[in-house]
Specification:
This is Outer membrane protein beta-barrel domain-containing protein. With 198 residues, this protein is mainly β. The protein is 14% helix and 63% strand. The chain has one domain (32-194): Porin.
């Protein structure tokens, strides 16, 4: 009987030791990629989108969401020119308003403070935007919009980065304010960096 217990204990010990060895040898999930400098080279492309101003105001029963899809081209290492669409929606008690626009942008990734998996960047936009409000004659069809942003791109894969941005934007096309308005917002985005074709 002692031999059966001893043999069982030995089998259990060896099987858990082998299993533990297999688990240790498994590849770990990737949480970052040391390729930030490769992704921001001349000739590469950037495509993606940012989401900002997602929120619900309980007092006024207003839901708002802004989405900014974009595409750009690296004219040199660290420097991008491109264009983005500005799309926004506010739904409130009694109606809704829609915001739209096209804004060219320039972005520069700073070599200072760079790490293998991330880069700080600055961005400027200038373009046109408009808004429409349900059952309103005061819509601004098109007006100017301009702003500056600062952010950080964290590379989670070879050509994919998560971005956080702080934006300061001035627009004359917001029906909510009846004139020009300057706003500060935080946005989160996902950008894909496409290498230049060889």
């Amino acid at each position: 009987m002692k031999r059966i217990y001893l043999l069982s204990a030995l089998i259990i010990f060896l099987s858990t030791n082998v299993f533990a060895q297999d688990v240790e040898d498994l590849p770990r999930p990737q949480t970052s990629a040391p390729v930030a400098s490769d992704a921001i080279q001349q000739g590469n492309w950037i495509v993606g989108a940012s989401i900002a101003n997602v929120g619900h105001n309980f007092k006024s029963k207003t839901f708002s969401l802004d989405l900014t899809p974009r595409a750009g081209y690296f004219i040199s290492d660290n420097a991008v020119i491109g264009a983005q669409a500005q799309l926004g929606l506010s739904i409130y008690s009694g109606g809704e308003s829609f915001r739209y626009g096209v804004t060219p942008f320039v972005r520069y990734y700073f070599p200072e403070g760079a790490s293998p998996t991330g880069r700080f960047f600055g961005e400027a936009i200038v373009g046109i935007a408009g808004s429409s409000e349900e059952d309103s004659d005061g819509d601004s069809v098109f007006s100017r919009v301009y702003g500056v942003s600062g952010g950080y791109a964290y590379f989670v894969a070879r050509n994919v980065a998560l971005e956080g941005m702080l934006n300061l934007v001035r627009s004359n096309a917001n029906v909510d304010f009846g004139g020009s308005a300057t706003g500060l917002s935080i946005s989160l985005g996902l950008q894909i960096y496409l290498p230049a074709g060889n």
